[in-house]
Amino acid sequence: MTSAPRVRKAVIPVAGLGTRFLPATKAMPKEMLPVVDKPAIQYVVQEAVSAGLVDVLMITGRNKRALEDHFDRVPDVERTLKAKGDDDRLAAVQLATKLGEIHYVRQGDPKGLGHAVLRAKTHVGNEPFAVLLGDDLIDERDELLTTMMDVQAKTGGSVIALIEVEPEQISAYGCADMEAIDGEDYVRVHRLVEKPSPEEAPSNLAMIGRYVLHPAIFEVLEKTPPGRGGEIQLTDALQTMATREGDGGGVYGVVFRGRRYDTGDKLSYLKAVVTLACERDDLGPELRQWLGGFTAQLPA
Question: Which residues form the Nucleotidyl transferase domain (predicted)?
Answer without folding.
Answer: 9-275
